[in-house]
Design brief:
The protein is mostly helical. Helices cover about 75% and strands about 0% of the residues. The protein has 18 helices and no strands. α13 packs antiparallel against α14 and α15 packs antiparallel against α16. It starts with a helix and ends in a 22-residue tail after the last helix.
Length: about 450
């Protein structure tokens, strides 16, 4: 690929879809910042706030498979531009809402409108760029998109102090609509010829693949939980458990967002480098899961560490989709990349909904004292996530454990011996006597 042609593709394909994903990340995490305003202005409770924030994930997850099919059939340009118009309308409705029902509808429209943001970007990368660059560009895509999480902290806090949350969503509605028009005008179309191979271009071929069901539970429980925690529950934890004030809270959320961006770049570069050495991305995902579980346990057990350390790990895990989608790109051909990515994203966002809403329900079982909930409430809620992530990690590691057990068994020292080899035959004394035939002429 010539340098001029590469930069042209970056400007016309990569950056417009990165802008769409930026808005998706901004909408996903903005509720963590405005949750206090929604509680004071509209009177939302903890469970209401959890439902409102998580309905984004529910609609997002439900739309992934249909969107994956649409992406494979009509291409990312048309699908992404049309859906972003829905997100713009949802943001406008959110700005005008005065009660929970209208807020839920608006939030659902936003979730549907940005549901193709990541998968459309990934699909465009698969279609337009060399295969060996896919993981690296996926990392850059998510890194630039996660700047939306950065915007949802200190910059958005300054805007809130100046114009208020309703005016902020009016601005987001206008920017989202403009991005939809940009993608439709600037991004070119690309038609690919289906490859002839053993995997048919159907959704069922994705769900029948054992490799998919090996990686999907681990990726979903880790990435979905990380999105849930950073998108909403990090702020209440830092307020109720760590006792941070508003300024310190926004500052720590800002640091987590910066770490999030760096994590996307780190994962993309790491996967790109280890692939050149013949190492699979599955190993990176397993290491990320172990670190994530350890960070959550550090929070639950109140380890004597600065809280920014485990929370930074939580933020980084939110970009582990770079690793997961790199694995998926190796498993399936380009013509079903949209379906495969969409199927995995169903589980990502489905679990994010369960984790976010479920955490709110668990926290609601404890009463507040001076406006704060007990540490035990958070420990129970976070511990539920850790238990399921541990089970998914064990499931992911089972094939490797079986291979390791088989390798150990092949070593002669550890090899099993059969019963006939282990027990020597018992020979009686009578069986050792040799009978000599009697010769009548023998002399004694």
């Amino acid at each position: 690929m010539q340098i001029s042609a590469a930069w042209r593709l970056i400007a016309r394909v990569f950056l417009p879809f990165a802008a769409g994903y930026y808005l998706s990340y901004l909408f996903r995490t903005i509720n963590a910042l405005i949750s206090g305003h929604l509680t004071s202005d509209i009177g939302l409770g903890t469970a209401d706030l959890g439902l409102l924030t998580s309905v984004y994930f529910l609609v997002f997850a439900a739309a992934q498979i249909p969107i994956g099919i649409l992406l494979d059939r009509f291409g990312p340009r048309r699908v992404q531009s049309a859906l972003l118009l829905v997100a713009a309308a949802g943001a406008g409705l959110f700005a005008m809402s005065t009660g929970l029902p209208s807020l839920l509808i608006a939030r659902a429209m936003i979730g549907l409108g940005v549901a193709a943001a990541l998968t459309a970007g990934l699909k465009s990368i698969v279609l337009w760029f060399p295969r060996e660059r896919v993981a690296l560009l996926n990392g850059y895509m998510i890194m630039l998109g996660s700047l939306g999480a950065v915007t949802a902290t200190v910059p958005a806090e300054h805007l809130l102090a100046w114009i208020g949350w309703r005016q902020l969503f009016e601005i987001l509605a206008a920017v989202t609509g403009a991005t939809a028009v940009l993608i439709y005008i600037v991004v070119p179309e690309r038609v690919i010829t289906p490859s002839v191979g053993p995997i048919p271009a159907t959704l069922s071929s994705v769900f029948r693949d054992r490799r998919f069901w090996r990686i999907a539970p681990l990726s979903a429980t880790c990435v979905g939980s990380a999105w849930s925690l950073q998108g909403l529950w990090a702020a209440p934890w830092l307020t109720d458990v760590e006792g941070l004030g508003r300024e310190s809270l926004v500052g720590q959320l800002f640091i987590m967002s910066i770490v999030l961006c760096g994590g996307a770049w780190l994962f993309g570069t790491t996967v790109h480098c280890i692939r050149r050495r013949g190492v699979g991305a599955e190993m990176v995902l397993a290491i990320v899961a172990v670190l994530f579980i350890a960070a959550e346990l550090a929070l639950i057990l109140r380890a004597p560490l600065p809280s920014i350390l485990p929370w930074s790990v939580v933020a980084i895990v939110g970009t582990a989709t770079v690793v997961s989608f790199a694995v998926i790109a190796d498993y399936f051909p380009p013509e079903i990349a949209g379906r495969a990515n969409g199927a995995l994203n169903v589980l990502h966002f489905g679990w994010a909904f369960v984790a976010q809403y479920g955490t709110g329900l668990i926290l609601e079982q404890w009463s507040t004292e001076d406006g704060h909930r007990a540490i035990l409430a958070y420990q129970v809620a976070f511990g539920f996530n850790v238990a399921l992530q541990t089970g998914a990690l064990v499931w992911f590691a089972l094939p490797s454990l079986r291979s390791f057990t088989g390798w150990i068994g092949s070593i002669p020292f550890f090899a099993r011996v059969s019963a006939c080899e282990a027990v020597e035959p018992v020979v009686t004394y009578e069986q050792t006597i040799v009978l000599i035939p009697i010769d009548g002429d023998a002399e004694w």
